Amino acid sequence: MESKAELLSLQQVRCFCAALELGSFSAAAEALRVSQPAVAEQIRKLERALDADLFVRAGRGVIPTDAGHAFAEHAAQSLRALEDAAGSVGEFTGMRSGGVALGTFSAPSTWRLEEVVAAFLERHPTMTVRFLSRNSSAIAERVRRGELEAGVVLLPIDDDRLDVRPLVRDELLYVSADPQRTRRPATIERLASAPLIFYDAESADSDPIRRLLTERAQAHGLRLRPRVEVEMAELALSLVARGLGDTYLPLSYTHAPYYPAGLTTASFTPALFNTFAIVT
Questions:
Q1: Rounded CA gap, 85 and 104, in Å?
Q2: Cα–Cα nearest to 209, from 133, 255, 155, 152
Q3: pTM of the model as a whole
Q4: What is the dihedral of CA 9, 15, 18, 19, to 10 degrees?
């Protein structure tokens, strides 16, 4: 079964944000230079995907429902992030033909980066795109060496000789198959004492999330020792689902198609956040 996030499109979110800001489908259509029925259809598709009404009619306009307000908290931020990413790609080259090499952090499916590629190709239809997925530390190094024009990465990274433009933050969660372990916010002490499954094994301590967790552990005089290390987050989650250990994961990844049913999550205390950024 597809997650709700997998069913959404950038155009649906764009229409929603325009209608929310301008107060009517007709005003949104004028701003987006499409027809009013096209805006209404995109929002109907969005409501079907979310299984919730996002607007109610109010005179000649619309006002958001409670579900619409809840969706708006994240929709506008995500839309700005994607459009900033798509727009900035166009700055990386003034060529009308040829190729561009881009990189992204591992497992980017939940961020719909295919929308960024599609937007770039729409603006530069004669160009080709080479799109690599690696750990953020590896992508940053390839951008630094000139092997990639740009990358979308997770911070922190070594930013020497790089231009870093933050896009959006995402909360880091503690993940376990045992609901007793996620009844309360997770402390770094609990993480250090738990059987842990780490992913991004090749990057190891260079991985941005591990760096974030390691810094907090060191501040408390603790060390994080994994029970199992694997390369792919998907495999790590499968092992967690079997009860072999616990792990950590950005909130957005819990919407990925490979996220196992039955896992439970908890925020860290104090809360931990990842920042995604474009590096050039």
A1: 11
A2: 155
A3: 0.61
A4: -130
Structure tokens at 236: 């790590």
The answer to whether the CB of 239 falls within 8 A of the CB of 197 is yes
Residue 158 near residue 175 (C-beta atoms within 8 A): no
Q: Is 174 helix (H, G, I), strand (E, B) or coil?
A: strand
Residue holding tokens 């995907």?
49
Whole-number Å distance between alpha carbons of 19 and 29? 8
pLDDT score for 91: 52
Task: Please state the separation of Cα 267 from the chain's center in Å.
Answer: 17
Helix boundaries (H) for 152-269: 188-193, 208-219, 233-241
Residue 230 to residue 205: CA distance in whole angstroms:
13
Closest to 39 in 3D by CA, of 50, 59, 23: 23
Q: What pLDDT does residue 186 have?
A: 94
- CA dist., res. 176 & res. 182, Å (int): 7
Neighbours of 220 (CB within 10 A): 10
Instruction: Kindly list the averaged pLDDT for each block of 10 residues, start to end, along the chain of length 280.
Output: 53 84 89 84 85 85 87 73 61 58 69 71 79 84 86 83 84 94 94 93 85 92 94 92 94 82 93 86
DSSP-derived pairing of the beta strands 247-250 and 164-176: antiparallel
Euclidean distance between CA atoms 104 and 204, whole angstroms: 18
pLDDT given for residue 185 in this prediction: 94
Burial call 93-102: b when 16+ CB within 10 Å, e when fewer = eeeeeeebbb
- Bridge partners (DSSP) of residue 57 are 62
